[in-house]
Amino acid sequence: MKNFFSIIGGMGTEATESYIHVLNKRTPAHSDQDYLNYILVNHATIPDRTDYILDNSKPNPLVPLMDDIKQQSSLKPNFFVIPCNTAHYFYSKLQSITDIPILHMPKEAVKEIGRVYPKAKKVGLIATRGTIYDGIYDNEISNFNYELVKPTKHIEDETMDLIYKYIKEKNIVNAELYHHILDEMINEMKCDVVILGCTELSLAQERASDHNYPLVDAQSVLVDRTIDMALHNEQK
Predict the structure, then answer these.
(1) Which parts of the chain register pLDDT below 50?
(2) Considering the domain 5-103+221-235, what is its CATH architecture?
(3) CA dihedral sign, ordered 122, 16, 13, 60
(4) Which CATH class is domain 106-218?
(5) To the nearest 10°, the Cα dihedral for 128, 132, 133, 136?
(6) What is the reported pLDDT for 148?
(7) Using an 8 Å Cβ cutoff, are 78 and 6 in contact?
(8) Domain spans of the chain?
(9) Do residues 198 and 178 make contact, with C-beta atoms less than 8 angstroms apart?
(10) CA dihedral sign of residues 16, 19, 24, 28
(11) What is the pLDDT of residue 234?
(12) What residue stretch is flagged as signal peptide (predicted)?
């Protein structure tokens, strides 16, 4: 197969399925042959990223992630996509073991703010506790001269419940809780826009988009950049 990319997924599987669904839906296709060529690695047994970031004695996700990158690199994809925000904690180490470019999900999400919300100054972030703790969005937001607004402990706990207790454990999106979190970030924390920095939150947005809160969905942006890059490679 020529002109294909590799997706390192399974973190979690429902979130990866959401990414694939949106990717295929947005691809400008009018026949089977118009869809994009890609290999999906749904590595569901990769250890939890947040658990490791908060406690380095827990199983290290970097080891299987590196194995996936090495295995897929031998097939020579045009580029890699990792539809998991928290996994980008390991981005530099993963990119260092391959010459094949890896799309940087947080960087692309922050770049999108200027295009969609050019007047935004205060940027809120909701994500897993691992992503909040490891600061993978902090430098990107600072580089674009935005003021980063992180959730309070209360909002952080609510977000973790939404992600883990509802979506990961039960495959249920608690729309009321999701909308409540967005309302807190916009109206209480005074954010101009909120980044959905977790693919489970992107899944929540896919299933409960009946709101008007200003946000940038990192997974949605990643889908668009994936399509852009894939079509560009096809034209070479």
Answers:
(1) none
(2) 3-Layer(aba) Sandwich (3.40)
(3) negative
(4) alpha beta
(5) 110
(6) 97
(7) no
(8) 5-103+221-235, 106-218
(9) no
(10) negative
(11) 79
(12) none
Strands ordered across the beta sheet of 215-217: 147-149, 122-126, 193-196, 215-217
- Counted residue by residue, the chain has a size of 236
pLDDT of residue 200: 93
Give the Cα separation of 97 and 70 in Å (integer).
7
| Residue among 11, 22, 81, 84 flagged as catalytic | 84
Tokens (6 digits) for 126: 């909701």
Q: Do domains 5-103+221-235 and 106-218 have the same CATH topology?
A: yes
What pLDDT is recorded for position 103? 98
Distance of CA 187 to the CA centre of its chain: 24
Residue 191 is a catalytic residue: no
pLDDT at 137: 95
3 state DSSP class of 78: coil
Instruction: Reply yes or no on whether 84 is catalytic.
Output: yes
Percentages (nearest 5) of helix, strand, coil residues in the chain? 55, 15, 35
Residues 89 and 87: their CA atoms lie apart, in Å, by: 5
For 63-73, write each residue's pLDDT tens digit: 999 999 999 99
Q: What residues have CB less than 8 Å from 217, skipping those under 6 apart?
A: 109, 196, 201, 202, 205
Q: Please, which residues have CB within 8 angstroms of residue 107's CB and are 6 or more apart in sequence? A: 140
Calpha distance 203→16 (Å, rounded): 9
CA 29/CA 31 separation, integer angstroms: 6
Q: Which of 11, 194, 198, 222 is catalytic?
A: 198
Euclidean distance between the first and final Cα of the chain, in Å?
A: 15
Helix and strand numbers (H, E) in the chain are 12, 7
